[in-house]
Input
Amino acid sequence: MRSMLLFALPLLLAATGNDMPRRAQLAGDWVVDLSVKPNEPYTRPMQLELKDDGTVAGLFYQSPIDAGRWKIDRGRICASFRTHDERGPYHSTACVVGDGVQGQTWAEARNFLFNWNAVRGTIAP
Output
């Protein structure tokens, strides 16, 4: 039993500890640019909490994240999550690209897909 523990412990530590710097690249506060016209800025906040169990919590477009997952794979870190409002569900994906995030949101009930970008920061209330 002891030898099994000595074998498994380094693997467990590697699996949970090595992703922290990469996780920090996506976790936290973001300003999402949802502008349709370049001369008419339209931004909304996104707050992502990437949990140890691979789930995502936080807010997007001032709506709580109902459910979501994050993963590091193929050299990048991404999250997918679902929010909703009175019109229905929104399915979003966000991936770190450089020092920002590129994402898209499918508004299922509104029948549109929107590509967006985000930069690190917060929006004053």
About this structure: The two ends are 55 Å apart (CA to CA). The CA atoms of residues 36 and 122 lie 20 Å apart.
